Amino acid sequence: MKAITLVEAVNQALDYEMSADESIVLLGEDIAKNGGVFRATLDLFDKFGAERVLDTPLAESMIAGIAIGMASQGLKPVAEFQFMGFIYSAFDHIISHASRLRNRTRGRLTCPVVYRAPYGGGIHAPEHHSESTEALFAHIPGLRVVIPSSPARAYGLLLAAIRNPDPVIFLEPKRLYRLFKQVVPNTGQALPLDCCFTLMPGDDITLVTWGAMVYETMLAAKQLGETQGIHCEVIDVATIKPLDMEMIIHSVQKTGRCIIIHEAARNCGVGAEIAANLAEHALMSLLAPVQRITGYDTIMPYYRLEKHYMPSVNKIVHTAQEMMEFV
């Protein structure tokens, strides 16, 4: 079995689930014959036809609204926005209707729609192509927000998202699309939503992260272990709404220290919610103040300054070393 990239894992999950469930319909801009801007839907049009893989006009609000109508009438739409930066015109439908349909109808209708979007920086993209604004959706009741960090988790979490009866915002870190490969058995085995994944056990410090930043965090954790003897526990949040705070709190109670790493801007980011929960529920276990390593409260810069904006391995290592000085 050959190893595949994250974007290929997305394609594999869509292919598997569409083969198993005829109610699944894909829609988005250039996703049919072209396979999407990142080729996540490559060859699916040829296999499943024009009635199940639909090219749409350049109208994100329309894409979001049509998907809600489909979902309310028994279909399971998977709608793609070409970039997260183009999703804002769809806010009204997603927030006012998709997230509220179950509540509005007192459970008579559900909204099993998945909104996919490539998100995050690191590929030298122009403006409106590098946002990490997951906190906007995490604030909305009725929405799940899922962010994979590897091919295996992209496959398993996307299957789970499609099978979920409520709307899911599925954000795919485009920096990871082709960064590395994994063997991903095409068994149809979904991963659980609403829970974190412990990627590396440790007793000294808890590193909490998600999406593309898992890559740098794992490199930093390995460096700290090999060169400093600092054993980090690395947690991939994966589903940032709802948060699996139980696992994070349990880890911090063991280590006494926590660094939260995310690419999004610092102010009101998901890291702030995690830090607040730790202050409420694990304060007496903390040996040092919770630290956040994040993007800056500015617009993501163009490619020449992009690497200075994003958290780095060196910054994670340096912050961890400083935190270990608290005894």
Q: How does the SSE layout of this entry go?
A:
Elements: E1 3-4, H1 6-20, E2 24-28, H2 44-48, E3 53-55, H3 60-72, E4 76-80, H4 91-96, H5 101-104, E5 114-119, H6 134-138, E6 144-146, H7 151-163, E7 168-173, E8 182-183, E9 197-200, E10 205-209, H8 213-228, E11 232-236, E12 239-241, H9 245-255, E13 258-265, H10 270-281, E14 291-295, H11 303-309, H12 313-323
Parallel strand pairs: 2-3, 2-4, 4-5, 5-7, 6-7, 10-11, 10-13, 13-14
Antiparallel strand pairs: 1-8, 6-12, 9-11
Helix pairs in contact: 1-7, 8-12, 9-10
- Helix percent reads 25-40%
Query: Which spans have pLDDT < 50 for at least 5 consecutive residues?
Result: none
Q: What order do the helices and strands follow?
A: EHEHEHEHHEHEHEEEEHEEHEHEHH
- The assigned structural class equals alpha/beta
Radius of gyration, in Å, reads 20 Å
CATH topology of the largest domain: Rossmann fold
Could you give the distance between the termini? 48 Å
> Percent of residues in beta strands?
15-25%
What is the highest CATH level, the class of the largest domain? Alpha Beta
Task: Calculate the mean pLDDT score and round it.
Answer: 96
How would a crystallographer describe the biggest sheet? 7 strands, mixed
Dominant shape? globular
